[in-house]
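User: I'm writing a tutorial on reading structure tokens. Could you give me a worked example: one chain, its sequence, then its tokens, then a sentence or two explaining what the tokens reveal?
Assistant: Sure. Here is the example chain.
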Amino acid sequence: MILKKIIVSLALLLSTLLYVEKLNAAQSDSNQALKLALKNMQEAILAEPLVALEELESLSIADAQLDKELRLLWLLRKAEAYNFSFQFDRFKVPILEGKNLLDDNSPPEIAAMFYLYSAIISQRRGDYLTAGKELQQAFRLSNSVTDPYVKGYVLLEIGYNDTLEEKYESSLKYLQEAFRIAKENNNPLLIAQTYEVYGVLYSYTAKMESSVEYYQKAREIYLKLGYPYFIAESTFGLASNYRRWEKWQQAIEGFEQYRAAVGDLTSSYTQFYYHYGISLSYANSGNCDKAMPLFSAGLSIDGFKDYKAELYKKQALCFADLGDFQSADNSVARARAIFDEIPELKGTTWQIEVDKIAAQVAAKRKNYRQAYQLIEQYYQAVIDVQRRNTSQSVEELKLELQSEREILELELLENKTQLQELMLNNQQRQIQIQRLWLYGSISVILIVLIFLWWQFRVSRKFASLAITDELTGLANRRFIFSTIEKIVLHRSQYYRHSLFLIDVDDLKPINDIHGHQVGDAVLKTVARVGREISRDGDVFARIGGDEFMLLLTRTDEKTEELIATRLLESISAESVEATQGDLVVPTVSIGVAAFDNNTDTPAKIYAQVDEALYRAKSSGRNRFSR
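And here are its predicted structure tokens:
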């Protein structure tokens, strides 16, 4: 009886073990099928990321211990679906979880992609140093990967990160290797991605025509493949290049195409970069009215602090154009603070350009001393960057030559017959170093000469601004009164000089009824007519508000009357278009006074001409009085 019970128990145990084994086998087959499905899902994610994301989220892969590789693959595909639908905040979650699951037994192609995507996250927050470290880890893992796309993708992302840090020589090296892999394996996506990063590199080195050409090549391939994320990104890159190329209309159209391309993929990322690109295009084309609300919309979006620095720089110039110098200073300060938070951008053209923007703001405020100091500081920084880049290239070549020389010396011990070849190579390299130093010195001299030339131009420009009325381009009050003072001090008894004081009639009602833009147009019209009628040697100036002054040298009473009459008739023959099709016909009143023996100060001649103007105004306006 006992034996029978033992036999029955053993039979039940065996049946249970067989059943569990069948269940495990079924689960294993299911996991393998799911892995295969996830591996083959990449095309669907690229073509329709939102649809693929719904399918991925419907899967239940919760227990990583059952099959860690399966969960890693699932997390990777979810991350890609989030990334290619511009959901970058959600993109971070599976990447972080996946990196925490990685161990020495994780498949290298999956581990490499997790590090690569983690580097992209670092890039997007402006942390290029961390991104570079993560990409190097991805690069080490890619050496064990058989998939050429993973290898090529890692290489081109390293090249892209180096481009962002302005390490153009190393960037080009990685891009060339990525392109070789793409071509050898005939992978259109990798080819297009490499074209796109070439476009970034050429853009950063100001070769806009080449940059646009590469972006167009990439976009054509993406359109054929039908990958919405890459179509949108290349469209944005193309529009950005048109902006840097100062082709404003094409840039604005391109950013509108970008907004249409993202369609259902709209996110804070796409919203920010749309506002970033189109606001800079409007601002750079001189349309601050359209740019300002777009600046505010872009700056209100969280993140993107390195790119926000560019928005603050351009916003500062627009504030200065609008006369709001306090806000302009605040925008400059915010840009500086951002660069202080990103050490990798210290010394780059992005960072040193803040001084140039600050100089432009100071010049618009008419603080020319500060503007000169800032612009001098900016160009000195430009020279330092150029000198550093030249010196770095020479030092890298010296280190490379030193290493080669040591190798040749070791080989010489093994084979003395190579002595003559070694000496010849060494001489050639020394000559090459001397040439590089010579070229470097010439480059530095040229940069210094260019800086001095720019300094001369800036000095002349500031000198011009000091004696020029900004609105009309005429001489200003300071210049004409200085000229009058010289005439008073050195006047000859043989020559007659006279002065016109010209006042625009009813300018305040024009401003009140039609707005200051129409009032400014009236002032510009008076300036243009006066400039056309003035003779060589005469000085025509705007001395403030609605008053102009015309200094006639070597004249007579008949000429004074002729010029005054021509001014009255020519100005009243003009018209300025106002709102709703109304026309404003400007008129002026003119006071005329001649220098005489009693005119020993500018104040006396000004008092005389002001009294004459008062009589002209009192007599009904649109006339002159001597």
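What the tokens reveal: DSSP finds 25 helices and seven strands in the chain. The CA atoms of residues 146 and 253 lie 42 Å apart.
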